[in-house]
Design brief:
about 210 residues; alpha/beta; Rossmann fold; six-stranded mixed β-sheet; 6 strands; oxidoreductase activity; Flavodoxin
């Protein structure tokens, strides 16, 4: 791949160094991307002073601008989130809210700065809801300019009402493991295509 980079945002509620199944699955996506020559970085969002809001910088020591710089330098976003009450985590929702600001940020050709960037998901939880979380996150990510590849999510959910975490359950090479490899392959393929063939200039502004 042509100098492609990935950024994984872990949206666990737990600050470091607490173990996180979301981070584990996100790192497994990064590892699968690394096999394809794509370097990646993991950021646990809750470790930073990210403020609630819908601007690129909420001021007063807001940690989002630094994360945003990494995001804008990346070609692939891996959003890793646990399922809480059948929903993406509150941290994941905060990230999506902060990305709303990108609707006002464009390049010299009128394109969103997120155009040409690929987004994939890694979801873990102890209840059904992975498909619902994926639907919510992908709708928001597509709205703010990211491109979603085919089969763009990998997930693991434990038994209903259970207490077993993904980190304790161990890798599932025949199911989650295989899906994770597919997500990485499709994300890498699409990111390379969009790097080589960017979206056209904003047709509404240039009609």
């Amino acid at each position: 791949m042509s100098d492609l980079r990935a950024l994984a945002l872990c949206c666990t509620l737990k600050p470091s160094p607490a173990p996180s199944s979301s981070e584990l699955l996100g790192r497994q996506v990064l590892a699968a991307l690394a096999v394809r020559g794509i370097e990646g970085e993991m950021v646990r969002v809750v470790d930073h002073n990210v403020r609630f809001g819908v601007s690129v910088d909420e001021g007063d020591g807001d940690g989002w601008p630094g994360i945003r710089d990494k995001l804008l330098s990346a070609h692939i976003l891996v959003l890793a989130t646990p399922i809480w009450m059948g929903q993406p985590s509150s941290v994941a929702k905060m990230v999506l809210e902060r990305l709303d600001a990108e609707l006002s940020e464009t390049d010299e050709q009128g394109r969103l700065l997120t155009y040409g960037k690929v987004a994939v998901l890694a979801v873990v939880g102890n209840e059904d809801g992975a498909h619902h979380v994926t639907a919510e996150a992908f709708q928001a990510l597509a709205d703010v300019g990211f491109t979603i590849p085919a089969a763009g999510s990998t997930y693991w959910v434990g038994e209903a009402m259970g207490r077993l975490d993904y980190a304790d359950a161990g890798p599932k090479p025949g199911t989650t493991g295989r899906t994770t490899i597919t997500v990485a392959a499709h994300a890498a393929h699409l990111a390379q295509l969009l790097t080589d063939h960017p979206y056209p200039a904003n047709s509404a502004d240039n009609a």
